[in-house]
Amino acid sequence: MAIIYNEEKKVFHLQAKDTSYVFEILNTGHLGHLYWGKKVKADLDLTHLIREQSRKAFLASEQKELSLDLIPQEYPTYGYTDFRQPAYQVKLENGSNISNLKYLSHEIIAGKERLEGLPATYVEDSSEAETLKVTLFDEVANLKVVLSYTVYQDFDVIARSARFINEGEENINLERALSTSVDFRDADFDFLHLSGAWSRERHVKKRPLEQGLQAIESTRGASSLQQNPFIALTRKDADEHHGEVYGFSFVYSGNFLAQVQVNSYKQTRVTMGINPFDFNWLLEPNETFQTPEAVMVYSDQGLNKMSQTYHKLYRTRLARGKFRDKVRPILINNWEATYFDFDEDKILDIAKDGKELGLELFVLDDGWFGKRDDDSTSLGDWFVDERKLPNGLGSLGKKINDLGMEFGLWFEPEMISPESELYRAHPDWCIHVPNRTRGQARSQLVLDLSREEVCDKVIEMVSDILDSAPITYVKWDMNRNMTQIGSAKLPAQRQRELPHRYMLGLYRILEELTSRFPDILFESCASGGGRFDPGMLYYMPQTWTSDDTDAVERLKIQYGTSMVYPVSSMGAHVSAVPNHQLARVTPLKTRGNVAMFGNFGYELDLTKLTVEEKELVKKQVAEYKEVRELVQQGEFYRLVSPFEGNNDTAWMVVSEDKKEAYVGFYKVLTEPNAPYYTLTLKGLDPEKNYRIKGMDKIYGGDELMYVGLNLPKLFNGAAPSDLDMIGDFQSTIWRLQVIE
Ligand code: DGJ
């Protein structure tokens, strides 16, 4: 890893693990992008690229004004000669909207600086990374922009952000302030993204690039169920394990834009950042604006390698705190077991059974506070409902601890029910616009976290509860998006700052609470996976992946989520059948086999299980305890996609030392008189032999990866006598151990 500056050529060469990223200072002072891809020699001269490829762009001599329209750039500007989408845009006091940033200076520092008030990847030792900070200046606007690029020693990652500084004496309105912009010299890519809706989050979507704009975004005040803040450009010949892939992931939990533009010469521009739609930031003299971070990953071995880079970076250098490197507890959550209808006895009955089955953490979900018998009241009234829990949370927590389990609690602190004491006391604390309806969703409004006193109150209310009981886990939920966006506190010219100020307020709350309560494991949730993003992972190392707990649907959801997010971040629970979202009936075995590839838990009424079901649950729990370190910290490989063909899915994890592996194979519908299938594995040591638990034969690592593993007969047409092995929704798991 190194960042090299060639003084004579005015070229920056950033080298990450096996990646090079190269750009130059053009004669005009603009930054021209030269290359991003597989590592090349540090002294390679690439400066001819722009001159040759942009022949139409240069006027007769380079001394004259340059047309930027075809020049690959680092942080393109609006208003001069580039007609593509800019990385930023300003509005000055004289009403002008154009700007022109030119190189002023640069510095290279060891390590990586924190981004004030924002989540970002980090280093533990300054030798892990190097950061280049290039300062650009617009002399008319007196605007400085510092572009920051961090390269990591052990990752094919370039982390980018931008900081705006108003050095003048007049106000500057930032109307667009994106975090990254990368120009590619061609457009031979597909555009991959993760899209969906409630209960079908992060489905993998792919389409060819075409001349024009293609984008995904959120305008909902949250990163959203509908689009995840991630895109990849994949070469036409790339797949899971081959070919070039460029990933862009946004470390932010609010409105975002990820956009790809192809011009008439098949050049491609990717931009990513806070969504400029309904955004404006008033930058007064001497004020600064820091953009969130975009994490860009290059892979020359397909999507899976890109994902592995994100997984390890996000697991070890984005997630923080005591639980980052620890195996996570197996939990039982009462939501689908009881919904709002519970009392202390019911909770303790479930907890008792949970303990007997080997579960480690009881999570009390929604309905324990205020007067909340359904979702129409009480958000904001964070004190225990003594009708349901007459002895209080402290006592309940102690009783659960006495059973030998930890105690966890659900909150939805960003929200307020109009039917609550808090709302009656502070009716202007919600996001709203005067004289307009306060539109409710799930009977609730969003607290205005752009206001300091509202954030302080949230910190105080949550802290009081956390101090009052032996709580070691918090599920932090958020169940509606922003509408009628306005703040009673912000001046008129700052109203469009609200969604970003909300995120800054939320991040302050999370920073404060996670520092005050370092021994609590926080899990984020937003109607399931509505805010499954790197921003939240910085504060909470795990996220509830989806409200959809159906095993078949989970195949797609977990497969898509794994594109960016590590297994250690994905909450995955076994729930009851008929499934509460779809009414599908799947075998308990398959529900377990799917959830095992996540942060495992149960979300059903354990007291209603049959003796046989309890036996199986016991076995699942015991097995997960044995494999969880491998599952949560191993390298994840996607083997068979549920999005292609839809009937089969397979994935596996391999320990870093390749001594252990865990493989899951799932078949949605059974097949009559099926053909024979084999599954080829990945990531094993070809020189070593492996034993598969429950089988006599010894397999070579090479055999498993190149010849393949014959699927057992349940997938190849089981005999009608093997009743537990036939039918729809079958699955199997293999546990591999190297033979030394
Ligand atoms: C939405 C979450 O995703 C569910 O798991 C559950 O906690 C409910 N909210 C409770 O209201």
Largest sheet: 10 strands, antiparallel
Bound small-molecule species: (2R,3S,4R,5S)-2-(hydroxymethyl)piperidine-3,4,5-triol
Strand content: 25-35%
> Percent range for helical residues?
10-25%
Radius of gyration: 27 Å
Overall mean confidence score, pLDDT:
95
> How would you describe the shape?
globular
Distance between the termini: 35 Å
Q: Would you report the number of β strands?
A: 38
What does this structure look like?
By secondary structure, the chain is α+β, with helices and mostly antiparallel strands. The protein is built from 13 helices and 38 strands. The strands form seven sheets. Strands 6, 7, 8, 9, 11, 12, 14, 15, 19 and 20 form a ten-stranded antiparallel beta sheet that branches. Helix 11 runs parallel beside helix 12. The chain is globular, with a radius of gyration of 27 Å. The structure holds (2R,3S,4R,5S)-2-(hydroxymethyl)piperidine-3,4,5-triol. Residues 335, 365-366, 410, 477, 479, 525, 527-528, 544, 547 line the site of (2R,3S,4R,5S)-2-(hydroxymethyl)piperidine-3,4,5-triol.
Please provide a brief summary of the model.
The chain has 740 residues and is an alpha+beta fold. Helices cover 20% and strands 31% of the residues. It contains 13 helices and 38 strands.
